[in-house]
Structure to design on (166 residues):
């Protein structure tokens, strides 16, 4: 049990190095956390987003406690599954199944299906959301009814004026 718990700092440092390499800074996991917090739609688009963010923050706090507080150690701060979670998250980043990779996939433009014309290679097309407001086209029947109503109103006004003026 103690051997597994003692792997937490080593696992955390490995994940920290990976994130630091990805972002090109010395605050890898904190930068990853910041990236997640800067995507307000993340929890809507990616399953488990909030849980992963909460775990990353927790493990950053655990690491800081172990490193900076005199009475804190892996023995009294970590459980068996902590190093395992950090290692699994590392693997998810490597396999591009981590929250930010899933977010990028969810927000990437999707190629539109298009029939291939003869002697032309298929070119990817990208679709974007259509505008929400699209004016309704007026049919010839509608125009006919509008003209009829206008004429009827004019005739009615003519008769009304004739009646009141005589």
């Amino acid at each position: 049990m103690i051997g597994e718990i003692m792997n937490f700092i080593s696992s955390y440092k490995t994940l920290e190095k990976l994130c630091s390499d990805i972002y090109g800074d010395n605050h890898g996991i904190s930068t990853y956390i910041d990236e997640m917090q800067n995507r307000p739609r993340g929890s809507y688009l990616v399953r488990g987003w909030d849980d992963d963010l909460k775990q990353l923050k927790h493990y950053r706090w655990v690491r800081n406690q172990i490193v900076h507080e005199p009475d804190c150690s892996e023995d009294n701060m970590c459980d068996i599954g902590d190093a395992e979670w950090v290692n699994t998250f590392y693997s998810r980043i490597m396999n591009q199944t981590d929250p930010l990779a899933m977010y990028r996939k969810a927000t990437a433009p999707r190629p539109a299906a298009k029939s291939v014309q003869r002697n032309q290679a298929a070119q990817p097309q990208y679709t974007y959301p259509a505008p929400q407001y699209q004016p309704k086209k007026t049919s010839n029947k509608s125009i006919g009814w509008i003209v009829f109503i206008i004429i009827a109103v004019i005739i009615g006004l003519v008769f009304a004026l004739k009646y009141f003026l005589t």
Summary: The chain is about 65% helix and 5% strand.
